[in-house]
Specification:
Layout: E1 4-8, H1 16-27, E2 31-36, H2 39-51, E3 54-60, E4 66-72
Parallel strand pairs: 1-2
Antiparallel strand pairs: 2-4, 3-4
Helix pairs in contact: 1-2
Amino acid sequence: MSKTYELDVRGLSCPEPVIRVKKALETNEGQLTVLSDSYVATENIRRLVGTLGYHCQTDTNDNEEFVLTITKEV
């Protein structure tokens, strides 16, 4: 069973959310859950993780924020 890591990028302007997600993926193994309040940041993160070979599931929470679940594609 792999560990789940969480990253909160709410309130940050691009490219900071993308940079933080990339760094988190480089330093941690397992599933990464990212909380974002920006549609643009969410789309940029989705593009990044796709090019790095990860799968990204995007949902919204009760506060209409984006919850991205990022896992390594096998």
